[in-house]
């Protein structure tokens, strides 16, 4: 069995969809610059615009509302940076609406940008979350005012999967006169995302989280919202993002969203079954665990579990030896021993946060893989607990039971 390979880390990144790979390989010879007027350029331009149409259609936007960027991180950096009043192009209006509201559970590319902007004249306020990772609309209402330029709340959390009610949040935000951004990197392609229904002004997409290539993303900017590029120096993307287009990446992203449109509904139902089996299997086989994230308003393929008395890193490495890939906290936080800021924000203590594992399944995940994980995991947790002096069950050290 140990030769079975199980990839349960789809929230960190996903493999290329076979259709995306096929189309990218077929287009590998396409090298024209979309800005060139000759046949090479026109071919590349046609492909970029076809992808723009696919991305726009997938989220209910107009073509000209889609800006291709280099990553989800770049899109998030761009939006937040619009609201710092270093220039008179500041979208918030200089000196007026210089407050940004975000949450304590955003991806680091939002949180670190917000921190940086706080040193450059912006005021940043952070929304708390409850034990399930949901923000409190009353707290948001209390923070909104005519000093607030932007509210940025992620649609689905990458670590615990919790979904926020972006439609309701946007209504409140707009009533106060502020703009609304959502980092939808983990939501797009997993749950229905329609920018008109949500009402948002800005929305972030990343290619490699939806079986597309790495190093490409898309930013939705609602028509009429004034905008100022983060990367300057060219007329590409209607002057909104300079730099010669990543033509192959953009082509792959377009094909990826096309495949999401075909597959996501059926896949969702399968993910619900896999997650239920995994969750119930862990609960039945392993003592002293707790499930993190919202019980219902959550991504179907994401399960975050705290195992008392273990280090998440040890679990990850032991599972890796068995061919199973999972993650602790978020991929971006690994390498450091800081407990996950998301779990801490939900009230999980540092010790329990350290013993947390994220299982994130995706389109090629199977029930056989869940069964294999459930075969391996109890022994792995037991082994680590028996080595640990910290884990004492019911006052008796696990090793001496
Ligand atoms: C992965 C991720 C990002 C960053 O996207 P990149 O394309 O890797 O820069 C942003 N937000 C969330 C929620 C993510 O999961």
UniProtKB/TrEMBL annotation:
Q: Which Gene3D superfamilies does the UniProt record give?
A: 1.10.260.50, Aspartate Aminotransferase, domain 1, Type I PLP-dependent aspartate aminotransferase-like (Major domain)
Q: Which SUPFAM superfamilies match?
A: PLP-dependent transferases
Report the top EC class in one word: transferase
Top-rank taxon, per record: Bacteria
Q: What is its EC number?
A: 2.8.1.7
Cross-referenced Pfam families? Aminotran_5
**Alphabetic keyword roster:** Aminotransferase, Iron, Iron-sulfur, Lyase, Metal-binding, Pyridoxal phosphate, Transferase
Checking InterPro entries in the record gives: Aminotrans_V_dom, Aminotrans_V_PyrdxlP_BS, Cysteine_dSase, PyrdxlP-dep_Trfase, PyrdxlP-dep_Trfase_major, PyrdxlP-dep_Trfase_small
This enzyme catalyses:
(sulfur carrier)-H + L-cysteine = (sulfur carrier)-SH + L-alanine
The cofactors required by this protein are: pyridoxal 5'-phosphate
Any one Gene Ontology molecular-function term assigned to this protein's record: lyase activity
Q: Does the record's keyword annotation contain Magnesium?
A: no
Domain Aminotransferase class V intervals: 6-373
- Function of the molecule: Catalyzes the removal of elemental sulfur atoms from cysteine to produce alanine. Seems to participate in the biosynthesis of the nitrogenase metalloclusters by providing the inorganic sulfur required for the Fe-S core formation.
Similarity annotation: Belongs to the class-V pyridoxal-phosphate-dependent aminotransferase family. NifS/IscS subfamily.
Q: What is this protein called?
A: cysteine desulfurase
Q: Which organism is it from?
A: Chlorobium ferrooxidans DSM 13031
């Amino acid at each position: 069995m140990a030769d079975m390979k199980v990839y349960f880390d789809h929230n960190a990144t996903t493999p290329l969809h076979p259709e995306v790979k096929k189309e990218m390989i077929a287009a590998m010879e396409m090298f024209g610059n979309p800005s060139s007027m000759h046949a090479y350029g026109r071919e590349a331009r046609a492909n970029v615009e076809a992808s723009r149409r696919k991305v726009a259609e997938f989220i209910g936007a107009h073509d000209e509302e889609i800006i291709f960027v280099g990553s989800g991180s770049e899109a998030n950096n761009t939006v937040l940076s619009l609201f710092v009043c270093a220039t008179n192009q500041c979208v918030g209006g200089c000196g007026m609406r210089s407050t940004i509201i975000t949450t304590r559970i955003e991806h680091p590319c939002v949180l670190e940008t917000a921190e940086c902007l706080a040193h450059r004249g912006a005021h940043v306020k952070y929304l708390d979350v409850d034990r399930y990772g949901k923000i409190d609309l009353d707290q948001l209402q209390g923070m909104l005012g005519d000093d607030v330029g932007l509210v940025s709340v992620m649609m689905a959390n990458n670590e615990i999967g919790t979904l926020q009610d972006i439609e309701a949040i946007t209504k409140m935000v707009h009533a106060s006169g502020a703009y609304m951004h959502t980092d939808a990197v983990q939501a797009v392609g997993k749950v229905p995302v329609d920018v008109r229904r949500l009402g948002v002004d800005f929305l972030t997409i990343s290619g490699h989280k939806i079986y597309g290539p790495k190093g490409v993303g898309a930013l939705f900017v609602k028509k009429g919202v004034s905008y100022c590029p983060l990367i300057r120096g060219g007329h590409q993307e209607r002057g909104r993002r300079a730099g010669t287009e990543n033509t192959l990446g953009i082509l792959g992203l377009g094909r990826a969203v096309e495949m999401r449109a075909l597959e996501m509904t059926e896949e969702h139902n399968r993910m619900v079954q896999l997650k239920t089996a995994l969750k119930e299997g862990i609960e039945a086989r392993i003592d002293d665990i707790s499930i993190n994230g919202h019980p219902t308003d959550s991504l179907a393929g994401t399960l975050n579990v705290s195992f008392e008395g273990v280090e998440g890193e040890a679990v990850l490495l032991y599972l890796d030896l068995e061919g199973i890939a999972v993650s602790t906290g978020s991929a971006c936080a690994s390498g450091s021993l800081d407990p996950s800021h998301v779990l801490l924000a939900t009230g999980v203590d540092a010790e329990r946060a350290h013993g947390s594992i994220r299982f994130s399944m995706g389109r090629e995940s199977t029930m056989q893989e869940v069964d294999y994980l459930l075969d391996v995991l109890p022994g792995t947790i037991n082994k680590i607990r028996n080595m640990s002096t910290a884990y004492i069950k019911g006052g008796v050290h696990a090793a001496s039971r």
